[in-house]
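ok here's YbaK/aminoacyl-tRNA synthetase-associated domain-containing protein:
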Amino acid sequence: IRRARHAVEVTHAIHSARWKWVPSTYYDWPLAQRAKILGAPTTHHLCKSLLMENKKQRSPKPGDDLSTNPRFMLIVIQYDATLDITKLMTAIRRLRPVAERLEESRFEFRLATPEDNDRITGYPNGAVTPFGLKDVTVPILLSASVVPLQYFWMGGGHINLKVGMAVQDFVTKCPNVRVMDLSVARDPNDDVDEE
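and the structure:
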């Protein structure tokens, strides 16, 4: 918690940040109830952070540009959306000029293992936040659908702690953040695991 809070308030000086402790039953609630306790206008303002791994990016060679083909990346996406793996692959491929783009066969995205998640983020599942990561070189990819909201909420480094902030502050003050088209809206009638 201290690591995340220090990163937000001191390292990145994000003055729009608000911290909110939530009850231990928070993840048992529907999204609308979660939004209400945080003071978020809609459920669209609630996000989660997912550490993803490109299973086909194994051992980088000297000179490899990992910023355009990372093995691990932290995705910040709305609970109301689904990560679209094809969009993620396309967005990563577009980081390189056309002549240097990697073939689609060089990508296989999966959620990182719990061991890699703990090692890279330093946070357990349900508490992952982009702030105070153990590996500060991990690119942070913010779903473009979050940008129009102006303010959003995400995990704060403890399963019962959330942090909200202005999107503009997140994008401009945090290193390694890129805004990318990564998601598709969920069907509101789908029965989804909202954790």
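+1. The chain has one domain: 2-185.
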